[in-house]
Amino acid sequence: MANPEAPIVLDGGTGFLKVGYAAQNFPEHQFPSIVGRPILRSEERGTDTDGIVIKDIMCGDEAAAARTMLQISYPMENGIVKKWDDMQHLWDYTFFDKMQIDPRGRKILLTEPPMNPLKNREQMCEVMFERYNFGGVYVAIQAVLALYAQGLSSGVVVDSGDGVTHIVPVYESVVLNHLTRRLDVAGRDVTRNLIALLLRRGYALNRTADFETVRQIKEKLCYVSYDLELDKRLSEDTTVLVESYTLPDGRLIRVGSERFEAPECLFQPHLVDCEQPGIAEFLFQTIQAADVDVRSSLYKAIVLSGGSSMYPGLPSRLEKELKQLWLTRVLQGDPSRLDKFKVRIEDPPRRRHMVFLGGAVLANIMAQNESMWITQQEWAEQGPRLGYAPYLGLFGWPIRDALPGSVIWGSDERTDRISLHGGTSQPQQNALLADRPGKRRVSWLTASIRRLRAGAVMSLTNNPPSGPNSGSGRGGALKRSVQSAFEDPNDKGGNMGYQSKVRVVDRYKVIGFISSGTYGRVYKALGRQGQAGEFAIKKFKPDKEGEQVQYSGISQSAVREMALCSELSHDNVIRHIETILEDRCIFMVFEYAEHDLLQIIHYHTQTQPRQAIPAPTVRSIMFQLLNGCQYLHSNWVLHRDLKPANIMVTSSGRVKIGDLGLARLFYKPLHSLFSGDKVVVTIWYRAPELLLGSRHYTPAIDMWAVGCIFAELLSLRPIFKGEEAKMDKKTVPFQRNQMQRIVDVMGLPTKERWPYLPSMPEYNNLGTLQPPPLHHHGGHHGHHGHHSGYGHGHGHGHHGSSRSSMAATTSHLEKWYYNTINSYSASSASASASAASAGAASLASLGAEGYKLLAGLLEYDPEKRLTAAQALQHPFFSASSSSTGSGMHNSNSNANSSAGGISNNCFEGLKMSYPQRRVSQDDNDIRTSSLPGTKRSGLPDDSLARPVKRVKEG
User: Fold this and answer.
1) How far, in Å, CA of 393 to CA of 139, rounded?
2) Which pLDDT score, from 0 to 100, does residue 282 have?
3) Secondary structure letter of residue 774 according to DSSP
4) Which Pfam family, giving just one, matches this sequence (predicted)?
5) Taking the complete model, does pTM exceed 0.85, yes or no?
């Protein structure tokens, strides 16, 4: 039997949470989506400040009123829940303090942004059922609800909130996910931009409490300029745009051009260091990417939604920009046909609450229809699988009749079509259609439920009475039992969780200090409490630019590295064991590796005579390194700081990529060296496109670094050992000395080899470089000239495209390569009795295939550069390695090998044994809360194993 109480509608946004009941015209409650904790300890703060009682956890309005005394946390970022514990505190505050209801057995409609991760949706449903015991849950996409609130079933929703802006096309009530765009610029970015602009005028409003003040200034004074140049001239020559604003402390400030300059970042995201198209460009791209039959209906129904769409002038500026884009890109500049282009932008006055209004309409329609909701019984039986149901059952799909596999069919009387969704064979489809006479097969995206859509529109025009103002007692016992339901006394945080009650020295015995880098110090430790084995513990420094996460002392770089490492698991990537948070310090525990490539290279440089690294060892190191890179890149991770010091090797010869402090997800916008990430890749391993100021980069920057490492394994010294200009290395991407070192070996890049070279911001600086001297290399052709025909027949289209570029580099890079490997042959001739002789001979056996791999990795044009997957298929790794020389032996050669015959033990067959990494015996630093990385007397110098010049990043 259906619950007679009206369903609850909860619209959670990054900036504000709106909640109310089905059929209401406005939210019952609206408050900031923030959670605050006191900055001072309980014994240091008063119990009452200006009438506000400071509690251990404060949410919403309470936290906003006392934010000067609180450490503020935002549970949602860019529309997606990131901090689930804080989100649950916010929901507790919503249901028990604001609404004062008993949620058990009631229905709730939740909203989610487009492209919300499935795991988030599952966890949201899980909390609603298992923590609050709701009887029914429905999750709806915010953009569709905004359209329903406007009485439409097709259109484009431009939903701009506090954390993210989405552009979502909807056709016949179905979201076109493949056309949905996400812009990571919204209201919070406009506020930050306004703070920066006011700072230029001399108003320092950068305290935590000032953020709310600036937000209010933004909402009262800011507008979107229709003619940017005109407004700039007005602000420079007159004072007509200047407005006054009284701050809470009584001061009066004057705001002029900042009024329109702050929201301009919505149209020009680069103003806030976001490398994405603006909102108008994204909107145009979205509609133009749709089928030509539906574009007209989309242009005529552009609906603005969200608080950041409330700026005066935004609709007219959007229309102007769209018409200009249509004129230049479709009409090719012919204004005579522009009159036929029809654009309609809907800007309803209540668009701040559009999503809630649509949810209230939909919840009212579904209130008595039990089949539309995921029930608690279904969740108990099927669990997270029902997380798909809100999408498959959107507006009337009968989920209970879903066929096994990936076939979804509609038998409900409101559904006039059958939709077959992927993975179904043609005979199955035909049989399904035969069983459903009168139905016709359509695509998943065009399935429509018309009667429900009509009901939604009728409900909007009828304006039913508001929902109940529930007077149900909240019950302290209920709230306490709900909170305790999610407190697992046996949960110790898992491998990746923060363990605030655990001390590092209780779990690990620190042996000593290993090394120091830009972001922290690394220590060697032995496990206690059943944690057998050796470990490396990284203690983070605060961010070098002072950027910390909400006064926690945790740097942004630490947060990023923790997030990435917790998701990665591969034999050739250093394994993350756990993360411990202690006294506002972050400790990341990793598996321990006894060696690194820098130390191995250093060992070979100290032998007399100098001994080359044997060819089988080089092959194994490169193969494992490329395997790790392929794994990272296939998971959308750029390492951005590959170098020998960051490539670890275990005692069993397993190569592992470490130190992901600079790593980023490259499906997110990445900044160039002009803004944001000032240092990308240590200078000797930095790709030419970075040195030339490229505003965008790809995994090709990692592959250039891999090529530099390969060359260093061969020559035992960096191939491009330039000097960094210390005065401008943080702000100027072009490092002349480093680029000159590349040109000395590779030759000058040309437009023929690199078509996009002239578009590089620092292209003109190439004219200041000296080309390498011309030379003849005919002596090499007689020995290895056959390599130049390589390019086809190996299944790698890449090599064919870079064939001409390789030919262009034979006079420079090829000469360097053969001079390098032949120099060891020459040195071994005078010391044939030594082990160096065997090492040199085996290195020479790399031959032409070694050069081809090196040339493919050190390709100027990043689009022609080998990818990790292509490099792994290179003949270099399938070439015979039988000539191992007297310094190697082949016992158990197949015991630990990859499918291609390359050993996963790079030490296999070696008679030599590499010294382990040096560990200083002073470990006091990790036991104190002092700033890690500070210089203290008595700390042994680690310069032998890790020269200061090489450890310094960037």
Assistant:
1) 10
2) 93
3) P
4) Actin
5) no
